Each structure stands twice: as structure tokens, then as C-alpha cells.
Amino acid sequence: MNYIKMKKIIAILFLTLSTCCGFSQNQVLYKKDFSQDYINSKYSRAQIAEDIEFMMCIIKKAHTDFYHNFTKKELKHSIDSLLLTLPDSLNIFKSSLAISQIISMFNEGHLGLLYNNKTIEYYYTLKNRFPYSIYNTPDSALIIKKDYSILQNLQMGDTILSINDLRTDSLISIFKHYFGGLNEWRFSQVKNMFGYLLFANDINAPFRIKARHNGKNIDFISNGERITVPPINDQKKSDKNYKYAIIDNDIAYINFYSMSDLNAFKDSLKITFNDIASKNISNLIIDLRYNGGGNSNLGEHLLTYINEKPYRLVASMEMKISKPVKQYFRMIGIPWYWKTFSYIIPNGIKKTVKSKPEKNKISEPFFKGNVVFLIGNGTFSSANMLANGIQDYKLATLIGENTAEPCNDYGDMIPFMLPNTQLIARAPFKHFGRANGDKTDVNGVIPDYTVIPTLSDIIQGKDIVLDFAKNFLRNKK
């Protein structure tokens, strides 16, 4: 094959790969079966070092800019310093914390705490787990969302000040180092996994709690007895990516919380917009506050019902072809031609695909009324990309809080298993440039109207962001 043909094939494959932003990631590269006694296994310092070296080797091969947040010298120093602090033998949970401190150095929201199905499942079998769920407030306060203990010492809105004589703000500060990304994102991840992180750090029941309850400081001991609640992965999920309702008789509300299964989404969305049209609804709220991303094609399809303007979700996308990327695509079989042509593409090639604002085909029934989007700290990945495109091209009004992910960000992850601990790490092979082309912008999406709920609003069950959006639409001429 001559050089010109090779360049053409590579260009075509890069172009087609650039549209594959939401393929399945259920499969894991280098996966092997767990031993029967996996949870009780111990790992030496040398094995942890091997896993870190393997992890960084795979990420380096895949990443478009491996040293974007640290130098080679800084990385080596951090790894060497970490290994010196480790004991001779670690369980799987302590191993996870150690390795996570290294991957968090990338300071990317997609790269953080390492775990696998076995570690999560084991945690949920424990009877004496930390019995509280926590609000995702963007600070170091540990505010109770719900008390699952039998004793019910605390109520919604109370604040835990210390656990086993350890100040909670100090614990949160420590736990943040297991995650990458903006501060708001790290806070949310810590609070979502706070009980698991306590357990992994050997902070177990009985829990000696100091808390602020009804304006007074109280002390008590909780044995961690917990009313049974299903693990997150076992909770019943909707067969859609969103929930739809007509609120206040004149506003259509779509809580768009997941971006997977494009074909099913297209089918259900058509039914939804037919219903909106049949009811002559002229105001629409689309809620992205709880959308952690997935396939960006779902966001673009949603826009075909509400937008006729030219736009783009990203200005540029840099990607890198490497052995792990090719292995992963061969494994999942998407797209099919990669199985054939990927063998001839040299490893290490990087290419930037730039996009121009385009006017996409509209879907019927097209919605011609007023549209607002709600965003917040939970708007992440492809949902963040959608919000960014909407903002930069003024496709709709954004209401809520800043998103917790930069619009210039690394994404499209390859999940892979580490050889010794069998923890699942991830490696990005693309970098997405903000829709307006500003490569220097380090922020997330900033709403047109900032509305931040207070703790009092949350406790009283008030959704002031949604209320603001409803009033905004009614006052819109």
C-alpha cells in the first residue's frame, strides 16, 4: 500500500472515530477472573508498584497529553514518595487508595478512585456501614441528607463535625486526593462515596459522632446499624434516559438524566414531543442537573426537536491511536472496520479534527416554543458538552449552578484491569476543545442565570432552580 493511500485510510478512520463518543464501556481490557478469596487477598509494595507502572504505561500510550498537569520528575517523585509510605502488605481497599492518589495527579474528572464490582459489592454486604447519606454541597461540611441508623439520632440538615475524633472537614480534605477534576466535582465524589471511603481507610463502627443537631452540639455512638437499602447498582432504573411530565398545566418538563441507548431514546423522544404538540404546550424545561453523560449523540438528537441554528458541541477534538485503543475497539467490535484497518495504523499517531458550526436536520414535531435548560454540579461529561454548545451558540437559556467539569477536557475512556490488584483504571484517548474555540478557558459551563439553593431550601424540599425557570418562562414575552 502506497503512502498516499495510507494517509487517506488513516484520515477516514480518524474522521469516523471522531463521531464515536458514546460507545459501550461495559467491557474491560485485560480482564481476568477473580479468585474465590479475592477480597481477602494481600498485596506487597512491589505489586502495588507494578500496578502503578502498568497503569501509567497504558495511560501514557493512550493519552493525547500525558504530562499536561505534572512533569516527569514530579510524577516519579510522587510515586517514589508514596511507595516509601506503604506497609509491606496491603488489602485491596488500601491498595485502591494508594493507586488512586497517583491517577488523581492528572486532575481530570474522569480519572479518580479505583475500584471494581467485587470491592463495591463487598462493601454493601457489611452490616455496620456508615449509616448516613450526605448532601453534595460544594464545601467541606458533612450535612445529613438521611439517617439510616436504627437510633435515628440525626435528621435532615444536621451537620456531622467529627467521626471517631477525626474532624470531618479534615477527612474530606484527605479524601479529595483520591479524585481528579474541579473542586466541586471532587466534593461531590467524596460525599457520594463517603461511607466507602471511611471503610477503606479503616474508620469503622462503632462510630463516635460529634454533630450539630437543632442548633446544639451532641455526642453519641452509632454502631452503624443500617436499615436495608439496595446498592446503587441494584436500584430499579427507568427504561428511558429521562422522565417527562407536564407541570403547572402549561410547562413541559424533561429530566434528562442519562445518555445511553440512542435508538431507544429516539423512539421515546418522538412520543414525548408528539404529546407536547398535542397539548399545545409552548414552554419547555430540560433538566441536565443530574446527567453524568454518556453518548453525546443523544444530546445532539434532542436539539433536533428544539433548535434550527448552526452550532457545534466542540470546536476541536484531538485523538491518539495507540495499541490499547486498537485492542479495545477490536474487543468491543465497534466500528467493525477497525478490526481490519487498525492493524495497519501506526501507534502514537495523533490527529486533531476541527468542526464547523452546522445546521442540523430538524425532527418533527418541531418545538417552536420557549426552552430553558437547568444545569449544576452534576452536569458532567457529554451532558457538560451539550450545555457548553447550548451556551456558546446561544441555543437556549441556562439556569442553575456552574457545572463541575471544564469545557476543555479529556474524555472517551478505555477501562482496563490492573494485573495484580485487578482494580479498574481508565485511560482517555481524546481531548475535546470548548465549542467557542477558546482553548485557554479552564471553567465549566456558567449559567445565564445563577440560582443556588440554600440548605434551608433543600431541607424544605424547595427546588428554587426549577421555580426560577418556571417564572422565567411565564414572564417571557
Structure description:
This protein is globular. Mean pLDDT is 90; it is low at 20-25 and 231-238. The protein is α+β, with helices and mostly antiparallel strands and 477 residues long. The protein contains 15 helices and 18 strands. The strands form 4 sheets. Strands 3, 4, 5, 6, 7 and 8 form a 6-stranded antiparallel β-sheet that branches. It has a 6-stranded mixed β-sheet with strand order 9-10-11-14-15-18, sandwiched between helices. It has a 4-stranded antiparallel β-sheet with strand order 13-12-17-16. Among the domains are: 128-225, PDZ domain (Pdz3 Domain), CATH 2.30.42; 242-315 and 355-405 and 447-475, 2-enoyl-CoA Hydratase, Chain A, domain 1 (Alpha-Beta Complex), CATH 3.90.226.10.
The pLDDT mean sits at 90
Distance between the first and last residues' Cα: 63 Å
Percent helix = 25-40%
Q: Provide the CATH top-level class of one domain.
A: Alpha Beta
Task: Give the overall form.
Answer: globular
Question: Any guess at the CATH architecture of one domain?
Answer: Alpha-Beta Complex
**Number of helices, counting only DSSP H or I runs of 4 residues or more:** 15
Gyration radius, in Å:
24 Å
Q: What class, by secondary structure content?
A: alpha+beta
Stretches with pLDDT under 50, minimum 5 residues? 20-25, 231-238
- Per the CATH scheme, the topology name of one domain is 2-enoyl-CoA Hydratase, Chain A, domain 1
Determine the CATH superfamily of one domain: 2-enoyl-CoA Hydratase, Chain A, domain 1
Largest sheet: 6 strands, antiparallel
Strand content: 15-25%
